[in-house]
């Protein structure tokens, strides 16, 4: 006996899912990795698997009909639509990603090597700079210890004898102890002992200046010392140069732009950095040196206030044009000049010249 299926017995098709919103933008990061693996865009759901069907015994009867095969397709997306015209295929995308990962690995390796090559501490870094400047290890060690802010008057005086007289630490300590009566054998109640210790405090003030100068000289890199020397030579001359840029000549003859005090202060700082540059060797005693600095400062003013200077120039030109058109009268009292008249009188005279306002 043949068995057939009725419409009621057939499986109910699943409800249609609303289409996913179209993806807009470029695939990057996690979204790009997911697309390379599954072929799905962000927001696109995977196709549903076909529902399982129960075979129906139809005996020897001919089939009523062959159902159409269910097929699903994944939209084809070209890489240039998402990543730009420079990517013609996904193989090119993979190549770029591979090179990017290799570059990141090399950068990480370089950073690791840089950290390993860094100085162990700031003292070694400073020692390296001192060695490049020709400072011996002995002088560097002595200068590193010569921090007068952390030293007693006795230590300052001892260090002064070491750096200025070349005494050993032991001899310098002994000399200071004997001169200022610092040993246990000296009684504080003795007036001469008290006087010696007061004298120690006074002498330590002068010694401090010498020790500080020694420390700075040995720990300051040579380029910095050279820059300070250049700046010291220019300091007496800079005020004269700054006077020349208080007003900047404009294109219109006889017109100049007044530079603000704030900009003059910034220009002065800029000039100090310029003349002390290790790349330059300008002589402050020559006209050429002064002219070079003056030109640099004028360029600095233009770079900072160029638009304002052009507006100032346009305004001044407009003022001159208006003055010429109106033909302003000279002040009263000047020989041959007619007296000034008020705006009201000028208006009355203008109205009186019109036919409708003439008398008679």
Write up what this structure looks like:
The protein has 360 residues and is mostly helical. Among the domains are: 123-220, no CATH class; 226-326, no CATH class. Helices cover 56% and strands 2% of the residues. It is built from 13 helices and 2 strands. It has helices at residues 29-38, 79-83, 90-117, 122-132, 137-145, 153-165, 169-179, 191-219, 222-234, 238-243, 261-275, 287-326, 343-352; strands spanning 247-249, 256-258. The chain has a two-stranded antiparallel sheet. α6 crosses α8 (191-219). It is flat. The model is unreliable at 353-358 (pLDDT under 50).
Short overview:
The protein has 360 residues and is mainly α.
Oligomer: single chain
Listing every helix as H and every strand as E from the N terminus to the C terminus, the arrangement reads: HHHHHHHHHHEEHHH
Proportion in β-strands:
under 5%
* Low-confidence runs: 353-358
- Total number of helices: 13
> How far is it from the N-terminal to the C-terminal residue, by CA?
134 Å
